[in-house]
Amino acid sequence: MTENTNAIIVEKVKQGDKEAYRHLVMRYQQKVFQTCIGFLQNEADAEDLTQEIFIKAYQKIESFRFQSAFSTWLYRISVNTCVNFLRKQKVKRLLFMDSGNQSKELKGVSEPADYSIEREEQRRMLRTALKELTTMQRKVFVLSQYHDLSNKETAEVLEISEKAVESLLFRARMKLQKAVKERMTND
Amino acid sequence: MNCVEFEIRLAKLKSGENPGDEFIKHRNQCAKCTKLANEVEGLFQLIEVDASKTVSPFLSTRIMAALDKKAMEVHISIQKAWQIAAVSLALIAGFNLALFMDYRQSPTDADSVLSEYFFAGNAGMEIENNWLKLSTDED
Fold first, then answer.
1. Are residues B24 and B79 both part of a single domain?
2. Are B9 and B20 in contact (CB under 8 A)?
3. Is residue B58 domain-resident?
4. Residue span of the structural domain in which A148 resides
């Protein structure tokens, strides 16, 4: 599906053709879901948030003026929604000392039956390291590693320069390596 | 290449990219850096596994159903808003009508004076008449 096809579908949706939106959902749900997984590290939450993102995009589609590709616009909504979700979750935990989500988070993405303790330890470390990243570093890291976007595409989504993406990604990876080193020292 | 340079190169390394001879040489010589590189590789493999998770095949149906539900909610809330507006308007109109009717039925100032005089006079007259009547009877 090219951007031209997207534009035709978006026009149809703007005119009230809700069924046309299904094509966009089918086309982009996997990518949006990957972004959510990268931010939330939890499959169930990621699916719920994917749904929320598509509803939000549908409600805001009138404001889409074809100044960028539809996918860029959608990924921007995805990233911002994920960041807001994490902020709300953090506030909720602070206010209510809610441990429910934490335990859910530890469970993480469903694993094959033979996953090792080592793997679980790795996952925990990854989560801890991701939490250490700044919001921008995390955005860049998720779009680049989970979403598999190029630096140019990531720059377009986040409305920053490619150089900034490179720098943010480098710092994010350095922090990740630092977490690995700390774990190695503790072992 | 020393350990710091190795770490920097490792952080800049893209997936599938050739790291270069010096990097490989240092990796083979330094046990600490070998372990670090292996651990980091393990993490990126984990990320790949997570990123390859496929979305539920029912998600699109769920999304479309949620959109329909939202549209229905909006429709209902618009309907409710109209109902509330209609009831409010009816109440305001009724209140105003009552005020208007009351105004129409209320006597003018001249009427009030006349009726007060009439009733006051009548009352007096009645007492006077009765008294006169009584006194006539006595006679």
1. no
2. yes
3. no
4. 113-187
Cβ–Cβ under 8 Å, residues B13 and B3? no
Q: Does A123 touch chain B (CB under 8 A)?
A: yes
Which positions in chain B touch A55 (Cβ < 8 Å)?
Answer: 63, 66-67, 70
Distance from CA of A48 to the nearest CA of B (A): 9
> Is-contact A51 B66, C-beta < 8 A?
yes
What's the sign of the alpha-carbon dihedral A179, A48, A146, B35?
A: positive
pLDDT digits (tens, 9 = 90+) for A83-124: 999 988 888 877 776 554 444 444 455 555 555 677 788 888
Question: Are residue A21 and residue A94 in the same domain, yes or no?
Answer: yes
B92, B94, B97, B101: CA torsion to nearest 10:
-140
Alpha carbon distance B45, A178 (integer Å): 18
Q: Is the ipTM of this complex over 0.95?
A: no
Q: How many domains does chain B have?
A: 2
Tally of CB atoms within 10 A around A44:
13
